[in-house]
Amino acid sequence: MAGCPYRKIRPLGEGSMGDVYLCVDVQQRRLLVVKWLRAELHEGSQAAIRFRREAELMTKANFPGVIKVEEWGLDEFGRTWMAMEFVDGLIPSAVIGPGDCWSVHRLLKGVGESLDDLHGLGVVHRDLKPENVLLRSAPGGWEPIIIDLGIAKWLAQETATASGSVFGTPHYMSPEQCRDTKSVGPATDRYAMAIIAFELLAGRRPYEGRTIPELLRQHLESPVPELQIPRRLRAGRAHDAGTKTTTTYNTPHLDAFMKKAMAKEPRLRYGSADEMAREFERCARADDLFEPADVADLSPLFPPAPFPIAEIILDGEPRQRFDLRHGPLVLGRHEACQIVLNSPRLSRLHACVYLHRGRIWAADLHSQNGTLFQGRALAPGVPMPFAAGAQTSVFTLYNRNVAVRLGAPEK
Question: Does residue 127 have an active-site annotation?
């Protein structure tokens, strides 16, 4: 049985169904993300059936604003894996602060367009939450992308879920989802999106039960609480003067928006994500909390790496130059490596250098004999950043030294 062709760099997360890793594709010189189904989930389990069905369907689909699934297969241990494009981004709360209605609207509009596309094709996400959305650099600052369809329900397909089962993340589950997975539809995703917007605006979630049954009961029965957006200093706003005792903004229109967006009955919510985003903007403007940003002045999420050119030095002699903005470098004895080292003591794919979030990183690729970087052992799965500036750093791969000199791109 052929194994997964991609080599693990570091873990990105883990869930009830699988583990997710940042990986390198040495053949095409790129980073990607690979999700492995947990070993204890046997081939005939419902989890394995859902995982493979998602992989099969998503490799055939191409949705704007949704992460692209490239391929899937079985590794040498019989574990199912699924390879997806790599998104160099941040979770929404790392970019959007409480009360930032302009950014929340941008998120609702971007994710909403993707949801409306998915719903139009018969796909309901069912597990929308902040961890499943990343913001990546784009013209005008950033754009959202949905990065996981782990338990997506394809309405046009026979589902792998038994009637009465409940799937999702309790803090973001709609009332109908709390009752029965079989009855979920597009309104379920819009309910979760409303909770994400509530959490970003207020800095807290609307429901915080101490136990899962209590949390589910709140979704089913409790009224939608007021936002109570923390007051922040807004220069030039006269109406903020003399209100030191007021700790939150007055948001009657946004509170009415949330009540409809999180209505207990799906038919009472907004009819589309596009309608929902437009109504959010209207309400935020009515509450005087919509402050449009000048997109021309927005900074990228990550500062550009000032020295992305890697010059390889072997045996004291400069050999090759690589632009890390175009992909990672892999060192090893496999002929596909960008730096091929003929030594039987080295692993075929031994170590790599890559650009991530504006920084250059060194990583051991779970090699047999280990890697030293600047005299320190690289633990597999724990990359080490290069020092800032145009400096030369040294890898020691068993008995071979490879120097990497970072430099600025030519103008």
Answer: yes
